[in-house]
Amino acid sequence: MSDEVDTQRFQDYLGEYSGDMPQSLQQRRLFFARWLLSQPPPVNVVPGQDFYYSNGGYALVGAMLEAATGKTFEALFEEELSRSLGVTGSWLRPELMAPDQPVGHSGLPGSLQVELPLPAELQQWVDVLAPSGPFSITAAAYATWLHWHLQALRGRATPLPVGYVQRLQQLASGDYALGWIAANDSRGRPVLFHAGSEPGFMSGVIVDIAGRYASFGLTNTQYADADGNSWVMDVLFTRLIAIAPNVFAK
User: Fold this and answer.
1) Residue 184: beta bridge partners?
2) CA 202 to CA 222: how far, in whole Å?
3) Which domain holds residue 48?
4) Closest among 193, 149, 187, 152 to 174, alpha carbons compared
5) Cross-strand bridge partners of residue 166
6) Of 18, 5, 3, nearest in space to 55 by CA
7) Mean pLDDT of the chain
8) Count of domains forming the chain
C-alpha cells in the first residue's frame, strides 16, 4: 500500500468479497498478503534498481514471519527487538493508551483538526500494516533506540544485528535500506535520516553515520499535500539540521 488509490482498491475488494472473512489479526494479515500478491506490479519500477516505498511490503514480510514461526508479528517484535533493546511501547494510537497521552491533529497551520480514531471495523484492517511502523513509544524510548545505533556505528557491541549495522554503513548518499535513507548533513558529513507518518502524528530523525550524534523530533501534527510535501516535516528537519553544528561545536 503506497497511496490512497491502493487503499481504495483493497477496500473495494473487501466490499465485493463473498467468502468467510478472517477473524484473527494473523488471518487478516495472510488474507491481505494473498490479495497483495495478486495485484499487478507498479509501473515504471525496475526491481533491484528503483526505490518504491510500500507499507504493504512490510505487511507481507510480517505474514511470512508469522507463517514461518506460528507467532504473531507483534509477539515476535516483543521477543526479538523490544525486549532485547529495552524499547517498550504499544501498537495502540497514543490517545487510546491513556487519557494523558497526546491527541493527533492534521491540517495546515492555523486550521488544525483533531484526527479522530478510525471505526473499529476499519482499524482492524489498518492493524494488518503494523510491520510498517505504527508503534507508539515515548521520546525516552526512542532515544534508547537511537543510543544503540550510535554505539553500534562507533564499533561497540550492541543488541543490534551486525549485518544490519554494516548495511547502513555501506549506503551511498541517496540509497534507501532498512527504513533509512543515506544523505549528507549541512557540513557534508554522511548521515542517515528517516521520516515517519501516522494519521495525526509525524516524526523525523537524523543519525550521523560515524555515531557522533543523533537528533529527532516527534509531533502530534500531520500534513501532506497531493505531491507528498509536508510543512510539518519541513519544520521538523529544518530544526533537526540546525542542531548538528551546535553538536560539533562542543
Assistant:
1) 190
2) 6
3) 4-249
4) 193
5) none
6) 3
7) 89
8) 1
* Best CA proximity match to 169, nearest among 187, 186, 149, 188: 149
Low-confidence winner among 12-21, 170-179, 220-229, 237-246 (lowest mean pLDDT): 237-246
Q: Which of 140, 104, 133, 146 is nearest to 232 (CA)?
A: 104
C-alpha cell at position 148:
544503540
Residue 206, strand partner residues: 193, 215
- Global pTM? 0.85
Cell output for 204: 523525523
**pLDDT digit string, tens, across residues 51-80:** 788 889 999 999 999 999 999 999 999 999
Coil vs helix vs strand at 66? helix
User: Roughly what angle, to the nearest 10 degrees, separates helices 139-153 and 162-169?
Assistant: 80
What CATH number should be reported for the domain holding residue 26?
3.40.710.10
Strand partners, 183: 191
Tens of pLDDT along 122-137? 889 999 999 988 899 9
